[in-house]
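Tutorial handout. Part one gives the primary structure; part two gives the three-dimensional structure as tokens.
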Amino acid sequence: MKILITGGAGFIGCNTAKRFIEDGHEVILLDNLSRKGAEKNLDWLKAIGKFEFHKVDIRDFDQLKKLFTRHINLDAIFHFAAQVAVTTSFEDPRQDLEVNLLGTLNILELARNLKNLPFLLYTSTNKVYGDLEEYKIVETRKRYKFQNTNAISESQPLNFHSPYGCSKGGADQYVLDYARYFGLPTCVFRMSCIYGSRQFGIEDQGWVAWFIIAATKKRPITIYGSGKQTRDVLYIDDLVDAFVLAFKNTEKSKGQAFNVGGGEKNTWSLLELIEFLRKKLDAKIELKFDKTRPGDQKIYISDISKIKNVLGWEPTIGTTKGTTMLLNWVKSNLKIFP
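Part two.
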């Protein structure tokens, strides 16, 4: 199979590329290398196997068109390239829109004009559901909990909040609409918090990895809000398994949106993760508290029953095991973190 991965040098992209390279597929990576750690991830992939790399920005339609002209027989496109931080979207809404929405439209237009329509999977976000203010939320000592539900399913009405939520949500709907009206076999994953090795987390995005990196390097950690914000978390290997299943079962996955995360069994609050790291590292972690950042949900937990029922997928790596795996990877690779 010939597989194109946009954002291929990023955290999710390089882990996905690794799986397909090892499985013997022809892999083409596209990335503008703007993300911290991207070049390190490319170097890591070079030791794994052969792939083709192009430094291209998804906003550059002309360059994309040249690439698609060279590769007219694509079997699949995994579209991960994006502006990924809610905070950055408030600082520069135009850039956020151009990357996430117009960049996605560029990919869709080029894909639908190929002779043989490739499978296209788009990574969306739980932010398409807004702040979930209609649900009653209970505050306990260490976390927030839903009072009247356990998790959020795909039946939850879309309610875009923040420029990031709007741009990713708009792209989410375009991707589904291209299946509906143009027959392009597309699939959307509305993802919760993904974590794992090769993740160069920063304060604004990739919070599980950022907490681990900061704690391991004995740096202070700023908590925005109470620290009781709660998310379901999913280890990267489980996510790649879901990608592969969606690709192998195109007839079932095309035109579908799936909530993808750790689900009810795999959750952390910020304070709970900090406590876990304190015990694992046997060290004091300096915390600072600041006001809640705009667009930050108090709680989000994915109902993953749809993807389980349709594709037979569910997580296999639990929260404690996965977090320990990432912690060990960070500890073993401290030199690559500035």
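Part three, for discussion. The first strand starts at residue 2 and ends at 6. The chain is about 40% helix and 20% strand.
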